[in-house]
Amino acid sequence: MENSILIVVITLLISAAIFIPVGIYLRKRIAESKIQSAEKEAKRLLETMKIEAENTKREEIFKAKEEILKLRNDVDQEIKERRDEVKSQEKRLVQKEENLDRRFQSLEDKEKNLQVKEEEVDQKNSELDKQIAEQREKLETISGLSTEEAKKQLLKEVESEIVNEKANLIKDLENKAKEDANKNAREIISYAVQKCAADHTSETTVSVVALPNDDMKGRIIGREGRNIKALETLTGIDLIIDDTPEAVIISGFDPLRREVARIALEKLIDDGRIHPAKIEEMVEKAKEELAETIKEEGERAVLETGVNGLPDDIVKLIGKLKYRTSYGQNVLNHSIEVSNLARIMAEELGLNPKIARRARIIT
Q1: N or C: which end of the chain has fewer CB within 10 A?
Q2: Which of 186-195, 214-223, 324-333 has the lowest mean pLDDT?
Q3: How far apart are CA 313 and CA 322, in angstroms?
Q4: Residue 220 contacts residue 248 (beta carbons within 8 Å)
Q5: CA distance 112 to 119
Q6: What pLDDT score was predicted for residue 353?
């Protein structure tokens, strides 16, 4: 048993001693073969790259030559165009020079002609002077007057005629000026009136307040007439509650008080609570509202007429004119119209329109 194991071991050792060098040799040969193949492939690739580089170089050179040729052609074309342009400019310059030469020659000819004509005119003037002197001598001989005496006599006669004509002309101008002034005055007035034509409203001493129903009349009168008495006492106007359906008439000569009563009564009707305390409250509110309305109307009139810078008291007085009438026309509207008329007349007459408007709206 031991001998057989020993034989196997020896066999294995012999095999290893034989096959290991053989394997090393085979591996070496395989590696050398791979190296040779890699070297051949590298040489082949290097040759291929050289060929491709040569081809690329030739293509680039060819492209560069084409580009150079194209640029050379473009430059030649541009040079040709510029040469043509220079030739054209030279031709135009030559033509201009020829035109200038012709004009200069023409001017010289004209100058020569002018000199000849001037000489002819001088000669004719000399001849005319001689003829005038001869005619003057003949006239002096015939009339028996010298030149100075003839001038004085002629001036005297002309002056007499001019004085008469001047007097007649001044008289005609005065008559015409009067006619024109009257005509212009009528035109200015009519023009101003036409521009400021407006509708006029007629106001009376009464105002009418509409009621929602006739039952409201009893509430306005109140128990034993206390409501209507309180309203009349606080406003100073008279309330007329008659058979007019759904209406109450407010009567009074003071338009401001009548307006306060109208506003207060309308507020009471809208509120529905009508008693002396409420009436007093509504009358105060109506007075405040009326004062604000007066201020707004005054400012509106000042704005429409263009009269700025007036004191507040005067603006309020102007606003109160809204509740005044004169000959059936509202005084505020009348004042605005007259202010505009004054402005138009002033503009037509060449005067200051601002002063005219300001003077008329205040007065």
Answers
A1: N
A2: 186-195
A3: 15
A4: yes
A5: 11
A6: 73
251: left (phi over 0), alpha (psi -120 to 50) or beta: beta
Whether the pLDDT of residue 140 is over 70: the answer is: no
In Å, what is the CA distance from 296 to each residue of 244, 261, 272, 299, 362? Answer: 34, 20, 29, 5, 17
User: Which helix (H) or strand (E) segment is 326 a member of?
Assistant: strand 325-326
Do the bridges between strand 206-210 and strand 329-330 make them parallel or antiparallel, or are there none, so unpaired? unpaired
pLDDT in tens, 79-124: 888 888 888 888 888 888 888 888 888 888 888 888 888 888 888 8
Q: Classify strands 238-240 and 325-326 as parallel, antiparallel or unpaired.
A: unpaired
User: Are the C-beta atoms of 359 and 348 separated by less than 8 Å?
Assistant: no
* pTM of the model as a whole: 0.40
Lowest mean pLDDT among 18-27, 90-99, 168-177, 253-262: 18-27
CA 246 to CA 214: how far, in whole Å? 5
Coil, helix or strand for 240? strand
Pairing of strands 238-240, 206-210: unpaired
- Residue 307, SS3? coil
Q: Greatest CA span in the chain, whole angstroms?
A: 201
Residue 175 above 70 pLDDT? yes
CA 38 vs CA 29, 41, 48, 50, 227: distances in Å: 14, 5, 15, 18, 132
Helix (H) or strand (E) holding 325: strand 325-326
HSE, side-chain direction, 13 A CA sphere, residue 278: 17
Q: Label residue 19 by pLDDT band (50, 70, 90).
A: low
